[in-house]
Amino acid sequence: MDLGITGKWALVCAASKGLGKGCAAALVREGVNVVITARGAETLQATAAELRALGGGEVHAIAGDITTAEGRAAALAACPQIDILVNNAGGPPPGDFRDWGREAWIKALDANMLTPIELMKATVDAMAGRGYGRVVNITSGAVKAPIDILGLSNGARSGLTGFVAGLARSNIAARGVTINSLLPGAFDTDRLRVTMQGAATKTGQPLDVLMSKRAGAIPAQRLGTSAEFGAVCAFICSVHAGYLTGQNILLDGGAYPGTF
Predict the structure, then answer these.
(1) Cα-flanking dihedrals φ and ψ of residue 236, to 5°?
(2) What is the rounded average pLDDT for all residues in the chain?
(3) DSSP result, the chain
(4) Which of 110, 134, 112 is nearest to 123 (CA)?
(5) What is the C-alpha end-to-end distance of the chain, expressed in Å?
């Protein structure tokens, strides 16, 4: 299937590894010119080299902290225009809400709610003016089924989800701009392994045993891959998904047990 996005320009945040990298790779393969961002310059440049080797669209790497005004300005300036925006940022740490002060909450809101809103504010009107735009917010399956130890993430990402529900249905919807969220469940990423390593250290169980148990609790009997996550993202960004907006799309191998 031709996704019809060859030559478009995309900004993909937190794209040096994991799900962001998967999204960037899928877009590059479709001929999209991609600007990728992340804080770690060395890893980001290595990822950029990998993406260029795919032989698709142009790849530009801008190192910086997308949660800061300076980081956002640098990333936005690197794109001649932004037709596709993939918002992504590492989630805040787990813990007990009794231990979090105002600073922890503000940091979570800055990264996982306010930064995506600022980037949408900077891009959606120009998208609407050109008659085409796609915004994909990478949030979390915890938006659908909250996880008790991820209170910071639950709160910040749910706030973003509520905001997007209104924006996606505003007058930009009739002007070719869609905004959707992708809610990942358990994917085989560095972040999941770090989290599971913490559990392994705490319980004394081997990491591979805990990873196997996690996969076994999913109806698909495996963890997701960043490549398949990226493929879904690319389709949402395509010309074929113009009637899909304001939706929260759960990718979790069937782990969420509800009907709705």
Answers:
(1) -60, -30
(2) 95
(3) ---S-TT-EEEESS-SSHHHHHHHHHHHHTT-EEEEEES-HHHHHHHHHHHHTTTSS-EEEEES-TTSHHHHHHHHHT-S--SEEEE--PPPPP--GGG--HHHHHHHHIIIIIHHHHHHHHHHHHHHHHT-EEEEEE--GGGTS--GGGHHHHHHHHHHHHHHHHHTTSGGGGGTEEEEEEEE-SB-SHHHHHHHHHHHHHH---HHHHHHHHHHTSTTSS-B-HHHHHHHHHHHTSGGGTT--S-EEEESTT------
(4) 134
(5) 29
Report the alpha-carbon distance of residue 199 to residue 164 in Å, rounded: 33
Would you place residue 155 in the very low, low, confident or very high pLDDT band (cuts 50, 70, 90)?
very high
Percent of the chain with pLDDT over 70: 100
| Residue that has been written with the tokens 């910040």 in this structure | 156
Question: Helices 207-216 and 190-203 meet at what angle, rounded to 10?
Answer: 110
Identify the burial level of 118 via C-beta atoms within 10 angstroms of its C-beta, where 0-12 means exposed, 13-18 middle and 19 or more buried.
Answer: middle
The whole-model pTM stands at 0.95
* pLDDT, mean of residues 129-154: 93
Residue 233: name the closest of 87, 123, 111 by CA.
87
pLDDT digits (tens, 9 = 90+) for 157-200: 999 999 999 999 999 999 999 999 999 999 998 888 887 887 88
Q: Is it the case that residue 260 has pLDDT exceeding 90? A: no
| Cβ-contact 119, 87 below 8 angstroms | yes
